[in-house]
Protein backbone atom coordinates (compact mmCIF):
# COMPACT_ATOMS: atom_id res chain seq x y z
CA UNK A 1 0.00 0.00 0.00
CA UNK A 2 2.84 2.39 0.88
CA UNK A 3 4.62 1.73 -2.42
CA UNK A 4 1.58 2.94 -4.36
CA UNK A 5 1.24 6.02 -2.18
CA UNK A 6 4.94 6.88 -2.56
CA UNK A 7 4.77 6.50 -6.34
CA UNK A 8 1.76 8.79 -6.55
CA UNK A 9 3.55 11.31 -4.37
CA UNK A 10 6.51 11.37 -6.76
CA UNK A 11 4.36 11.64 -9.91
CA UNK A 12 2.14 14.46 -8.66
CA UNK A 13 4.84 17.17 -8.41
CA UNK A 14 6.01 16.34 -11.95
CA UNK A 15 2.44 16.56 -13.25
CA UNK A 16 1.95 19.85 -11.41
CA UNK A 17 5.13 21.26 -12.99
CA UNK A 18 3.95 20.21 -16.45
CA UNK A 19 0.52 21.73 -15.86
CA UNK A 20 2.12 24.95 -14.60
CA UNK A 21 4.40 25.12 -17.66
CA UNK A 22 1.44 24.52 -19.97
CA UNK A 23 -0.57 27.22 -18.26
CA UNK A 24 2.37 29.67 -18.49
CA UNK A 25 2.77 28.88 -22.20
CA UNK A 26 -0.94 29.52 -22.66
CA UNK A 27 -0.68 32.87 -20.84
CA UNK A 28 2.36 33.87 -22.91
CA UNK A 29 0.47 33.01 -26.11
CA UNK A 30 -2.59 34.96 -24.94
CA UNK A 31 -0.44 38.00 -24.13
CA UNK A 32 1.13 37.89 -27.60
CA UNK A 33 -2.30 37.60 -29.26
CA UNK A 34 -3.63 40.47 -27.13
CA UNK A 35 -0.71 42.68 -28.19
CA UNK A 36 -1.16 41.81 -31.86
CA UNK A 37 -4.96 41.74 -32.10
CA UNK A 38 -6.40 43.25 -28.93
CA UNK A 39 -8.15 41.64 -25.99
CA UNK A 40 -11.23 40.89 -28.08
CA UNK A 41 -9.23 38.48 -30.28
CA UNK A 42 -11.02 35.16 -30.82
CA UNK A 43 -10.19 32.53 -28.23
CA UNK A 44 -9.49 30.10 -31.09
CA UNK A 45 -6.55 32.37 -32.10
CA UNK A 46 -5.15 32.09 -28.58
CA UNK A 47 -5.65 28.32 -28.60
CA UNK A 48 -3.85 28.04 -31.96
CA UNK A 49 -0.95 30.21 -30.75
CA UNK A 50 -0.65 28.12 -27.59
CA UNK A 51 -1.02 24.82 -29.44
CA UNK A 52 -3.95 23.72 -27.27
CA UNK A 53 -7.64 23.07 -27.76
CA UNK A 54 -10.41 25.52 -26.87
CA UNK A 55 -11.47 23.23 -24.03
CA UNK A 56 -8.08 23.64 -22.36
CA UNK A 57 -8.44 27.41 -22.32
CA UNK A 58 -12.00 27.32 -20.99
CA UNK A 59 -11.03 24.74 -18.35
CA UNK A 60 -8.41 27.14 -16.97
CA UNK A 61 -10.23 30.41 -17.72
CA UNK A 62 -14.03 30.09 -17.93
CA UNK A 63 -14.47 33.74 -19.02
CA UNK A 64 -12.49 36.24 -21.07
CA UNK A 65 -12.17 38.39 -17.93
CA UNK A 66 -10.54 35.45 -16.12
CA UNK A 67 -8.03 35.11 -18.96
CA UNK A 68 -7.26 38.84 -19.06
CA UNK A 69 -6.69 38.96 -15.30
CA UNK A 70 -4.45 35.89 -15.46
CA UNK A 71 -2.39 37.35 -18.34
CA UNK A 72 -1.93 40.62 -16.47
CA UNK A 73 -0.86 38.90 -13.25
CA UNK A 74 1.45 36.54 -15.15
CA UNK A 75 3.19 39.48 -16.80
CA UNK A 76 3.50 41.34 -13.49
CA UNK A 77 5.03 38.22 -11.92
CA UNK A 78 7.49 37.74 -14.79
CA UNK A 79 8.58 41.38 -14.53
CA UNK A 80 8.96 41.09 -10.75
CA UNK A 81 10.98 37.87 -10.98
CA UNK A 82 13.28 39.38 -13.62
CA UNK A 83 14.63 42.05 -11.24
CA UNK A 84 16.59 39.83 -8.83
CA UNK A 85 17.71 37.57 -11.68
CA UNK A 86 19.10 40.54 -13.62
CA UNK A 87 20.81 41.88 -10.51
CA UNK A 88 22.52 38.53 -10.03
CA UNK A 89 23.68 38.16 -13.65
CA UNK A 90 24.35 41.70 -14.94
CA UNK A 91 27.85 43.20 -14.91
CA UNK A 92 26.67 46.15 -12.78
CA UNK A 93 23.57 47.08 -10.81
CA UNK A 94 22.96 49.97 -13.24
CA UNK A 95 23.02 47.51 -16.18
CA UNK A 96 20.47 45.38 -14.32
CA UNK A 97 18.30 48.46 -13.76
CA UNK A 98 18.46 49.38 -17.47
CA UNK A 99 17.49 45.86 -18.54
CA UNK A 100 14.68 45.71 -16.01
CA UNK A 101 13.29 49.07 -17.12
CA UNK A 102 13.27 47.72 -20.71
CA UNK A 103 11.20 44.76 -19.55
CA UNK A 104 8.95 47.11 -17.62
CA UNK A 105 8.39 49.16 -20.80
CA UNK A 106 7.50 45.96 -22.68
CA UNK A 107 4.99 45.14 -19.94
CA UNK A 108 3.51 48.65 -20.01
CA UNK A 109 2.95 48.54 -23.76
CA UNK A 110 0.94 45.34 -23.25
CA UNK A 111 -0.82 46.82 -20.24
CA UNK A 112 -1.89 49.89 -22.20
CA UNK A 113 -3.36 47.50 -24.75
CA UNK A 114 -5.53 46.12 -21.94
CA UNK A 115 -6.32 49.53 -20.45
CA UNK A 116 -9.89 49.86 -21.69
CA UNK A 117 -10.84 46.45 -20.35
CA UNK A 118 -9.02 47.00 -17.07
CA UNK A 119 -11.03 50.18 -16.50
CA UNK A 120 -14.32 48.30 -16.80
CA UNK A 121 -16.47 47.58 -13.79
CA UNK A 122 -15.48 43.93 -13.45
CA UNK A 123 -14.77 43.26 -9.76
CA UNK A 124 -11.77 41.08 -10.60
CA UNK A 125 -9.99 44.02 -12.22
CA UNK A 126 -10.18 46.22 -9.10
CA UNK A 127 -7.29 44.52 -7.33
CA UNK A 128 -4.90 44.43 -10.30
CA UNK A 129 -3.44 47.90 -9.81
CA UNK A 130 -2.64 47.15 -6.16
CA UNK A 131 -1.09 43.83 -7.23
CA UNK A 132 1.04 45.68 -9.79
CA UNK A 133 2.28 48.18 -7.17
CA UNK A 134 2.84 45.56 -4.46
CA UNK A 135 4.88 43.29 -6.75
CA UNK A 136 6.89 45.81 -8.81
CA UNK A 137 7.73 48.75 -6.54
CA UNK A 138 9.86 46.60 -4.18
CA UNK A 139 11.77 45.14 -7.16
CA UNK A 140 12.47 48.59 -8.61
CA UNK A 141 13.49 49.77 -5.12
CA UNK A 142 15.96 46.88 -4.82
CA UNK A 143 17.50 47.74 -8.20
CA UNK A 144 17.74 51.46 -7.40
CA UNK A 145 19.29 50.78 -3.99
CA UNK A 146 21.89 48.42 -5.49
CA UNK A 147 22.85 50.95 -8.18
CA UNK A 148 23.01 53.76 -5.60
CA UNK A 149 25.15 51.64 -3.24
CA UNK A 150 27.54 51.01 -6.15
CA UNK A 151 27.77 54.77 -6.68
CA UNK A 152 26.29 54.51 -10.18
CA UNK A 153 23.17 56.62 -9.63
CA UNK A 154 21.86 59.25 -7.26
CA UNK A 155 20.64 57.92 -3.93
CA UNK A 156 17.52 60.09 -3.61
CA UNK A 157 15.38 58.23 -6.16
CA UNK A 158 11.98 56.74 -5.37
CA UNK A 159 10.92 53.61 -7.22
CA UNK A 160 7.27 54.66 -7.48
CA UNK A 161 8.24 58.03 -9.01
CA UNK A 162 10.54 56.41 -11.55
CA UNK A 163 7.93 53.82 -12.51
CA UNK A 164 5.29 56.53 -12.80
CA UNK A 165 7.59 58.58 -15.04
CA UNK A 166 8.31 55.58 -17.26
CA UNK A 167 4.59 54.84 -17.43
CA UNK A 168 3.78 58.41 -18.43
CA UNK A 169 6.40 58.29 -21.19
CA UNK A 170 4.82 55.11 -22.57
CA UNK A 171 1.34 56.61 -22.92
CA UNK A 172 1.94 58.33 -26.29
CA UNK A 173 3.19 55.13 -27.93
CA UNK A 174 -0.27 53.99 -29.05
CA UNK A 175 -1.51 57.20 -30.63
CA UNK A 176 1.51 58.54 -32.53
CA UNK A 177 3.64 56.32 -34.80
CA UNK A 178 6.50 58.86 -34.62
CA UNK A 179 6.55 58.76 -30.81
CA UNK A 180 9.41 56.63 -29.51
CA UNK A 181 8.68 55.83 -25.87
CA UNK A 182 11.67 53.51 -25.56
CA UNK A 183 14.06 56.29 -26.64
CA UNK A 184 12.54 58.70 -24.12
CA UNK A 185 12.75 56.11 -21.34
CA UNK A 186 16.42 55.49 -22.23
CA UNK A 187 17.06 59.23 -21.81
CA UNK A 188 15.26 59.22 -18.47
CA UNK A 189 17.27 56.25 -17.17
CA UNK A 190 20.55 57.74 -18.47
CA UNK A 191 19.70 60.87 -16.48
CA UNK A 192 19.77 58.84 -13.25
CA UNK A 193 23.54 58.30 -13.53
CA UNK A 194 26.00 60.17 -11.40
CA UNK A 195 28.39 62.36 -13.37
CA UNK A 196 31.82 60.76 -13.70
UniProtKB/TrEMBL annotation:
GO molecular function, one term: transcription cis-regulatory region binding
Domain HTH tetR-type: 20-79
Protein origin, superkingdom: Bacteria
InterPro entries, sorted: Homeodomain-like_sf, HTH-type_TetR-like_transc_reg, HTH_TetR, Tet_transcr_reg_TetR-rel_C_sf, TetR_SbtR-like_C
Record Pfam families: TetR_C_43, TetR_N
PROSITE patterns named among the record's database cross-references: HTH_TETR_2 (PS50977)
Species the sequence originates in: Streptomyces luteolifulvus
DNA-binding region(s) from the entry: 42-61
Keyword terms of this UniProt record: DNA-binding, Transcription, Transcription regulation
Protein name: TetR/AcrR family transcriptional regulator
